[in-house]
Amino acid sequence: MTYDSQIAFTLDTICPWTYLAKKRLDEALRRFRQSDQGKEVNFTVKYYPYQLYPEATKEGEDKYEWYKKSRYGNSEEKMKMYMALMTAYGQTAGIDFKFGGTVGNTMDAHRVVQHFQEEKGPEVADKIIQSLYAQYFQQEKHPSTDETLLKATTEAGIPEDEARAFIEDKNDGLIDVKNLVREQTGNGVDSVPTIIFEGKRRDITLVGAKEVEEYEKTLAAIVKESK
């Protein structure tokens, strides 16, 4: 008999480390599902919202300058080191990181992810998130304009009329997603990615982007303890 386990993945769509973690977790799950153990536990990833930069405006500002100023004390040298590091990490996970574009408020992106996760299920939410990450980090798009969100929902297979109606009604689902963000903070989440693997005997929490092998080891531990 297969045991069902949820993986709670808390993210922000402008966090490069959550993109990296997602790619690595996806690879760990792919390997796991091809193994003999894959028949014993059925893992489902559910996404939860977090905002790293809640005071950001919807219009946003220059991403490169914001990173340099807010993260690296306006140091060009430190910014170059960060870009070299992320480029190298990205290459190992199939991500071609780019550092231009606009950083902006992600609330609308979270609103769309949560709504369609509830309506259409985790696989659709997964595809929306994949697109949001790729658009922001690889195509230098704004993280949450209507155009970005419409592209993400279309790529996830949601009919354009249905997606557009929800995306353009900025109040639809807003209170729910704000409550979820507060809930995550109340649950002790203070950085992302935070990933909780739910097990029969205990939950295992991993914070930060871990290596593929560490995610594999965690999946194996959940399987072992589910017997």
UniProtKB/TrEMBL annotation:
<protein>
    <recommendedName>
        <fullName>DSBA-like thioredoxin domain-containing protein</fullName>
    </recommendedName>
</protein>
<dbReference type="InterPro" id="IPR036249">
    <property type="entry name" value="Thioredoxin-like_sf"/>
</dbReference>
<dbReference type="Pfam" id="PF01323">
    <property type="entry name" value="DSBA"/>
</dbReference>
<dbReference type="InterPro" id="IPR001853">
    <property type="entry name" value="DSBA-like_thioredoxin_dom"/>
</dbReference>
<feature type="domain" description="DSBA-like thioredoxin">
    <location>
        <begin position="7"/>
        <end position="219"/>
    </location>
</feature>
<dbReference type="GO" id="GO:0016491">
    <property type="term" value="F:oxidoreductase activity"/>
</dbReference>
